[in-house]
């Protein structure tokens, strides 16, 4: 048999505080027993008390819960538990109406050992690699000379001193914006993520450096946190990871755009060496001077060679040569025309002589005559005419009219 549904609260019929507390407690109780992973931020052992109070903090967020457990449970599962340790506990959430607070009641506590931590990190490493957070093609190139460098590191730490000192030694005018955070402990991850967000939103920052000195695996654990790795991957500004020593390899090293083996190495990667760049510029300047000198010498020799050529040494010589060529061609043309005219004249005289030799007029000059009938027909035989025919006799000088009396 189902219980009748309680009327909803209204402005006219509000619920009393005890009813709200009862309902919250009922909803919380529905969650049941759960396994919880977190970092111990505080331990409170009161002398003579059988209950131990823990503050369990999420390493990746600014969240914490109070945990209550029996002293025997703590001594059995984690007798050497200290603040900052990573634990896994079996607990049930409980809501206390009298104080309006939520806490966890644990019946089993396990301190996470180094082996288990390494196993978790390896699983997380494979997960992030499968998602492409370590992909080389997604890493960005650092600017050659950043306008301003953002530095996230511990306050007054050796890592901060190494980065600042070595960077300014290489490039004295470099500008930094330093954000000091906790680099280990329960608040380290949230502080680093917040500092990363602040520097990433600063338009004057061209590169961000995460720097921390060496330490054990547990000391460097914040830099292998999943939330921090994803925040570094999502940053728009290139990130350089300079965590620990050469042998240390937290997961943020694989996500960052550039991994520096040490904070000192990070200084070498983010800015060029002024002395080295000056030397390279001087070397390039000398090479450029030599190249320009060689080119000028070559071009001067080329100009001198051009100037020594006859066309430029005596420009009028070309005109004189062309004038001589024109005169020679004119003389040749005159001789050729004259020769052709003389030859034509000789041909004409020879032709005229032959013409005269073959002309009937020349025959007539020798005493011959040409006899023609009245119709102009030349008479070549006596049989061609008859008596009384009128004939025309052409002489060398004039002509005669004659009549045929008889033919023989």
From TrEMBL:
Belongs to the XseA family. The keyword Ribonucleoprotein does not apply. The keyword Hydrolase applies. One of its GO terms (molecular function) is nucleic acid binding. Residues 133-343 form the Exonuclease VII large subunit C-terminal domain. One of its GO terms (cellular component) is cytoplasm. HAMAP family: Exonuc_7_L. Bidirectionally degrades single-stranded DNA into large acid-insoluble oligonucleotides, which are then degraded further into small acid-soluble oligonucleotides. This is Exodeoxyribonuclease 7 large subunit. Its EC number is 3.1.11.6. GO terms for biological process: DNA catabolic process. Heterooligomer composed of large and small subunits.
């Amino acid at each position: 048999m189902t219980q009748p549904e309680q009327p909803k609260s209204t402005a006219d019929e509000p619920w009393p505080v005890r009813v709200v507390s009862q309902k919250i407690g009922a909803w919380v109780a529905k969650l049941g027993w759960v396994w919880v992973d977190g970092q111990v931020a505080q331990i409170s052992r009161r002398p003579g008390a059988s209950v131990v109070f823990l503050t369990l903090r999420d390493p990746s967020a600014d969240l914490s819960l109070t945990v209550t457990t029996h002293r025997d449970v703590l001594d059995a599962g984690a007798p050497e538990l200290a603040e900052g340790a990573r634990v896994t506990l079996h607990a049930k959430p409980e809501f206390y109406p009298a104080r309006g607070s939520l806490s966890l009641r644990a019946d089993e506590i396990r301190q996470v050992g180094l082996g288990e931590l390494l196993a978790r990190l390896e699983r997380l490493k494979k997960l992030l690699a499968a998602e492409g957070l370590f992909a080389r093609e997604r890493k960005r190139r650092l600017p050659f000379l950043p306008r301003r460098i953002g530095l996230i590191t511990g306050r007054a730490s050796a890592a901060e001193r190494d980065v600042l000192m070595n960077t300014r030694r290489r490039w004295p005018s470099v500008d930094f914006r330093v954000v000091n955070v906790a680099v280990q402990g329960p608040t380290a991850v949230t502080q680093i993520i917040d500092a990363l967000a602040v520097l990433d939103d600063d338009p004057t920052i061209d590169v961000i450096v995460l720097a921390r000195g060496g330490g054990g695996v547990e000391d460097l654990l914040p830099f292998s946190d999943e939330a921090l790795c994803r925040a570094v991957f999502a940053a728009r500004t290139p990130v350089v990871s300079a965590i620990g020593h050469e042998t240390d390899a937290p997961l943020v090293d694989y996500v960052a755009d550039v991994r520096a083996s040490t904070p000192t190495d990070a200084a070498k990667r983010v800015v060029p060496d002024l002395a080295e760049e000056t030397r390279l510029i001087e070397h390039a300047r000398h090479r450029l001077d030599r190249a320009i000198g060689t080119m000028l010498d070559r071009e001067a020799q080329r100009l001198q060679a051009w100037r020594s050529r006859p066309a430029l040494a005596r420009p009028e010589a070309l005109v004189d040569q062309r004038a001589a060529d024109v005169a020679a061609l004119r003389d040749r043309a005159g001789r050729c025309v004259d020769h052709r005219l003389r030859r034509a004249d000789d041909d004409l005289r020879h032709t005229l002589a032959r013409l005269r030799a073959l002309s009937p007029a020349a025959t007539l000059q020798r005493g011959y005559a040409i006899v023609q009938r009245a119709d102009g027909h030349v008479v070549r035989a006596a049989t061609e005419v008859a008596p009384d025919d009128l004939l025309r006799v052409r002489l060398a000088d004039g002509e005669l009219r004659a009549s045929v009396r008889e033919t023989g």
